[in-house]
Design goal:
Layout (H helix, E strand, L loop, with lengths): L12 H12 L1 H14 L3 H28 L5 H9 L4 H38 L7 H20 L2 H28 L22 H7 L2 H6 L5 H4 L7 H30 L3 H5 L4 H10 L1 H35 L6 H4 L10 H15 L8 H27 L14 H19 L15 H23 L9 H7 L3
Helix pairs in contact: 1-7, 1-11, 1-14, 2-14, 3-11, 3-17, 3-18, 4-5, 4-17, 5-6, 5-14, 5-16, 5-17, 5-19, 6-14, 6-16, 7-11, 7-14, 13-14, 14-16, 17-18, 17-19
Length: about 475
């Protein structure tokens, strides 16, 4: 790929799959946004929306996996965009990298914020005198980001071990939660409850409100580009990275549907639970009792913390690669690698700091979580769309890697791009009515600010010096520069 090797290649096939499976994280994604779905469409959207969006995301993942097999580098999306573009390679690569950056930051921030919310829900159950506030949520999120940054500061082996643990935590945890929700409650909703519709968004248009509920599944299925970003640390990356992407999406779709159904059928008092501060927690309490609910909540919190850790790992690799090509302010700092741990330590702390900045509006905004989720979903999926679109435009001139879709490559890519365009427009729109300063969806502003900065910087200086991914020389020349 034209780069001297700086990162240790110690991720096995399972480790690569684990990073995306952990970032997708069905427990974290479903529990953190279940309340959003209860109020925007209800069980009908939660269940059937999960199935429909999962299929669409699988198209996106398969199209990305084909590209990952051809260009297995830490730069992932922005690198492949630069290689697939027929002309203006620098511009395509530049904007893809910045969209990927803001999307990754949004994912790390949203997962930390969700974990802080559920930690406070647990504390409130333990000590009734504790009352969560927006300010406390932001402060706890900051603490979580610091701990996750410290974990990512150490060796890649530690991250790999934690990701392996996280996979089993997710799978075993999912089995425990689903089994408990099936066996313990003395009653469940009727079979037809999955068609129940609810709209508490404030918007009168039922279709619009229901489509907003699709954000639940879309938010869960973000971050599978993590396998792509870890390519340079994965053995046999041209095969293991694309397999990691597709397997993570497929396994998450099936196990996530089981968890979603278990939660939906455990609902008792819909209005009370949908209006609670943490709706899925209230569902657990009403169906299982406080003691059992607290035990399951610990599983959920652990899953969220693992998810945030994996998010930050993927995030830092994108920052490392983007800086390696001189595309970020202070690039020399962010692509430096610790000689002791062989990890991009400075990039880790940049990711943590930027994630905290994105969470700060939560100090006063009660829709901060959904806004940060929108930043994550829209930023990442638009970054996914660019190389897929360029691969589609390239047609038969695209040179696939060992893992490819054959003649199905172009139709799969076309469906993926269409879905991303539709969902990105939807999730930038208002999500709650009436719209005021505390309920405004600031996702478009956050994305616009980042893109405005990228645009100004591009036309001011970057277009003259940034021509896309850097090549350090021929394979034999690069091998001679390898630092390991």
């Amino acid at each position: 790929m034209g780069y001297p090797r700086k990162l240790t290649r110690r991720f096995r096939a399972f480790d690569n799959f684990a990073i995306s499976f952990t970032i997708i994280n069905i427990i974290s994604g479903i529990f953190s946004s279940f309340g959003m779905g209860m109020n925007a469409g209800g069980p009908r959207i939660l269940v059937f929306g999960w199935i429909g969006v999962s299929v669409m995301v699988l198209f996106v993942g398969a199209a990305m996996a084909e590209i990952a097999s051809a260009y297995p580098t830490s730069g992932a999306l922005y690198f492949s965009a630069g290689k697939l573009a027929k002309k203006h390679k620098g511009a395509w690569s530049w904007y893809t990298g910045w969209l990927n950056f803001v999307g990754q930051i949004g994912g790390t921030a949203a997962t930390g914020y969700a974990a802080a919310t559920f930690i406070q829900a647990y504390v409130s159950m333990q000590w009734s005198s504790y009352h969560p506030t927006l300010q406390q949520t932001v402060l706890i999120t900051a603490g979580i980001l610091v701990v996750q940054a410290l974990a990512n500061t150490y060796t890649v082996q530690l991250v790999a071990i934690l990701n392996r643990i996280s996979v089993w935590w997710l799978l075993v945890g999912m089995v425990i939660i689903v089994t408990t929700l099936i066996v313990v409650p003395d009653q469940h909703q009727s079979a037809g409850f999955v068609t129940h519709y609810a709209n508490n968004t404030g918007f009168e248009n039922a279709i619009y409100a229901g489509m907003l509920g699709l954000l639940v599944t879309s938010w869960t299925f973000t971050g599978f580009d993590g396998s792509f970003h870890m390519s340079e640390e994965t053995v046999k990356a041209t095969v293991n990275a694309p397999k990691g992407i597709v397997r993570a999406i497929g396994y998450s779709a099936v196990t996530g549907l089981l968890l979603m159904l278990a939660l939906v059928y455990a609902i008792r008092d819909y209005g009370k639970e949908a209006g609670a501060d943490a709706p899925p927690v209230q569902v657990l309490i009403d169906a299982l009792g406080t003691g059992t609910a607290k035990m399951l909540l610990l599983i959920v919190i652990g899953a969220m913390l693992f998810c945030g850790l994996a998010n930050m790992t993927s995030n830092t690799r994108q920052i490392f690669a983007f800086s390696r090509d001189g595309a970020m302010p202070g690039s020399r700092l962010w692509h430096s690698v610790s000689p002791r741990t062989r990890t991009p330590v400075k990039a880790v702390w940049l990711a943590a700091a930027c994630s905290l900045v994105l969470v700060i509006p939560g100090w006063w905004s009660h829709v901060a979580f959904s806004a940060v989720v929108s930043v994550n979903v829209v930023g990442l999926f638009l970054a996914y769309a660019v190389p897929i679109f360029l691969r589609l435009r390239l047609g038969d001139a695209f040179q696939p890697g060992p893992w490819n879709l054959g003649r199905w490559g172009k139709p799969v890519a076309a469906i993926a791009v269409l879905w991303i365009v539709f969902s990105s427009v939807l999730f930038m729109l208002p999500q709650v009515s009436p719209i005021d300063a505390t309920s405004f969806n600031y996702a478009p502003i956050a994305l616009a600010v980042v893109l405005a900065i990228a645009t100004v910087w591009w036309f001011a200086t970057a277009r003259r010096r940034f021509q896309g991914p850097v090549s350090y020389g021929r394979p034999d020349e690069v091998a001679a520069m390898d630092l390991i």
